[in-house]
Write a structure and sequence with these properties.
The chain has about 200 residues and is mostly helical. It is about 65% helix and about 0% strand.
Length: about 200
């Protein structure tokens, strides 16, 4: 290097960039905690199922439902959806019973309409056969009356089943069927007369 000659100025090398920090792990999802109203509904419907499922299934069978398990399951689902509108457990039971009656009635009407509109049925409609579970719920004397009950008009059949198999009072029957107490008396009286005549004809 010549005297008085300065070396060219050079910048020092830039420091190496630090490695990128790993991203923060996602925050764990907070568990969805059901509110008091949801917990009350879950417990209430579970209790209603435990206490009344068998009697509701028996009711659907006696009313002539071709698929009583599905009828009762749908009734409980409707109760579950409407639970917050109900006042208490007694109201829930009454509403459940009414729902089973309504669903069975609608189901029977649907089947009757479908059968009437069959142009050329391949074979006569098969009689309603309840599942083994449903049939087991019925006593032998009840099974004998089922065929005769199926021949009654729907309202007479409902009135008799609610009165003599479930042991409901007139006011409870009226609430379940959505009719007046006077109509309950009329349907019950006519149903007993028709059922007695049908049973005597079997002898």
């Amino acid at each position: 290097m010549r005297p008085g000659h300065r070396p060219p100025f050079t910048l020092p090398p830039a420091p190496a960039a630090p490695p990128p920090e790993p991203p923060d792990p996602p925050a764990p999802l907070a568990p969805q905690v059901a509110g008091p109203a949801d917990l009350e509904r879950e417990a209430g419907v579970a209790r209603l199922f435990e206490l009344h499922h068998s009697s509701m299934l028996r009711l659907a069978v006696l009313l002539g439902a071709d698929d009583p398990e599905n009828v009762v399951a749908e009734a409980y689902y409707q109760i579950y959806r409407r639970w917050r509108r109900l006042k208490d457990a007694a109201a829930a039971e009454a509403h459940l019973r009414s729902t089973v009656c309504n669903l069975t009635r609608v189901r029977i009407r649907h089947l009757q309409v479908a059968r009437r509109h069959e142009e050329q049925p391949a074979s006569p409609p098969e009689p309603t056969v309840a599942s083994a579970e449903s049939t087991a719920l019925l006593r032998e004397d009840q099974r004998v009356l089922i065929d005769a009950l199926q021949q009654l008009p729907a309202r007479q059949r409902e009135a008799l089943v609610l009165r003599h198999w479930l042991g409901l009072k007139e006011a409870e029957i009226a609430a379940a069927m959505g009719i007046s107490r006077g109509s309950v008396k009329t349907h019950t009286s006519r149903g007993i007369a028709a059922l007695t005549q049908a049973m005597e004809a079997r002898r």
